[in-house]
Specification:
The complex is a heterodimer. Chain A is an alpha+beta fold. Chain A has helices at residues 2-15, 19-37, 131-135; strands at 42-48, 51-55, 58-61, 67-68, 73-76, 81-86, 91-94, 99-107, 114-122, 124-128, 140-143, 148-151, 155-159. Chain B starts with 6 loop residues before the first helix and ends with a strand. In chain B, 24% of the residues lie in helices and 21% in strands. In chain B, a hairpin with a 5-residue loop joins β1 (22-23) and β2 (29-30). The chains are: A alpha+beta, B alpha+beta.
Chain lengths: 163, 255
């Protein structure tokens, strides 16, 4: 009993926290691994200059052929741009000094049910909507700091404002 | 006998220390240099000798303390912009833009909206040239538009492609060679004969046939995905239960 208590204390001192936080941390890690294991949303097809994919705590340089997952953030440098094609043929292009969160993406290849939600935090995003928007327009939404866009199809550009 | 001075003397010393100035007959407290001592408001502090007559230069006019400027109103220096574009065939979709409770519908080519934080949505009208001027780098970086190729099957077969399939696949491979990081979506379709479940299964088998065929032609399997859409997406819309060769197809989309 004493040894057990000692061990608990030892683990706590390593974590610098209480057992409940240890549990919460475990859950957080589980969620994180789930996010990584999720289906790919799309792939980088064009790249100009330099850009980064932020995935959890990882920072990955963008390359043509890089896979993009839901919850990824894409950040572009000056005079840079990244062109993606998602699994449902949605084409997203982020221009220079841009920051875009792919909050949600899912696509059922049989029913075409799915969801697309993205936030343009900085810079400009060109959108050519795909099969999800065609099957269920209400499932596709884009945001900036100020506005929300409901998509009824096809092509547009969103430029985020600046405070 | 008490060796310390009487206590009232302490309070007098304290008062002298606080003011560290002299009550001049000029009517204001002044410092050692003869300058008027001012309050934090900038007002000369009057002594008990003060009269209406100006004695110390400047003391009649209370120096104007510039009021601290009001905090700048936080405004979006650059409004968010939305602009709707036509597709290459000239077709225009629609976008609903919402900010708080206001909502605008864009459904014309080059119709735009500007949205500054805390302001109303403002409509704008762009042109092909103005969009090109502002967003040319962005437009040039758009990924290639997915291209679809269609192959068909001999009647009732999920394995025998029609004779022209080879030519279609040759065209496709030409496109593939130019494509950045190509991925293929191979989707089978049926006509409306049979149940939905049977057609889902049949369409998937058709897609798998084509996908094997593509793999044999040297296309990396990890880039090929198959799906069956059954009778959900008839190329030629028919009533249920109609056999139509045009609907029995596999669409290969390069993206």
């Amino acid at each position: 009993m004493k040894i057990h208590f000692f061990k608990m204390k030892y683990i706590q001192s390593l974590l610098g926290t209480k057992p409940i936080y240890f549990l919460l941390t475990s859950f957080a890690l589980m969620n994180f691994s789930c996010a990584v294991a999720a289906d790919a949303a799309g792939m980088v097809k064009t790249l100009k200059g330099a850009a980064t994919i932020e995935r959890g705590v990882s920072r990955l340089p963008v390359t043509v052929g890089a896979v993009v997952y839901p919850k990824d953030r894409i950040v572009t440098g000056p005079q840079s741009a990244v062109g993606l094609t998602l699994k449902d043929n949605t084409q997203l292009t982020l221009g220079a000094n841009g920051e875009m969160d792919l909050n949600k993406f899912s696509f059922n290849t049989t029913s075409h049910a799915g969801e697309l939600n993205s936030t343009v935090k900085r810079g400009s995003l060109s959108v050519i909507s795909g099969k999800v928007a065609k099957a269920n327009p209400n499932a596709v939404q884009f945001n900036t700091g100020t506005v929300t866009l409901g998509v009824r199809g096809t092509e547009f550009i969103i430029e985020a404002g600046e405070d | 006998m008490n060796r310390f001075p009487p206590s009232f003397l302490y309070s007098w010393l304290a008062a002298a220390a606080i003011f560290s100035g002299h009550a001049h007959a000029d009517g204001y407290w002044t410092d050692a240099q003869g300058q008027a001592i001012r309050s934090t408001d900038g007002e000369c502090i009057k002594s008990s000798f003060w009269t209406e007559l100006p004695r110390v230069p400047g003391c009649q006019v209370i120096p104007v303390v510039a009021p601290s400027p009001p905090p700048p109103v936080v405004k979006t220096a650059k409004p968010a912009r939305i602009v709707l574009l036509p597709d290459p065939t000239g077709k225009v979709g629609a976008v609903v833009v919402r900010e708080g409770k206001s909502e605008l519908l864009l459904n014309q080519a080059y119709a735009g909206v500007q949205a500054a934080l805390g302001s109303e949505l403002v409509r704008s009208m762009e042109t092909e040239a103005s969009v090109r001027a502002r967003y040319s780098d962005l437009l040039d970086a758009i990924s290639p538009r997915p291209v679809t190729f269609v192959v068909r099957f001999e009647t009732g077969s999920a394995t025998r492609l029609t004779a022209d399939a080879n030519r279609v696949l040759e065209d496709m491979q030409k496109v593939l060679r130019q494509w950045p990081a190509p991925q293929l979506m191979v989707v089978g379709h049926t006509d409306s004969v049979g149940t939905v479940q049977d057609n889902d299964a049949l369409s998937l088998r058709r897609a798998q046939t084509v996908s094997r065929f593509l793999a044999e032609r040297g296309i990396a399997v990890q880039n090929i995905e198959t799906a069956g859409r059954g009778e959900r997406e008839l190329l030629v819309v028919t009533k249920d239960g109609v056999a139509d060769a045009r609907n029995r197809r596999v669409e290969i989309t390069v993206r």
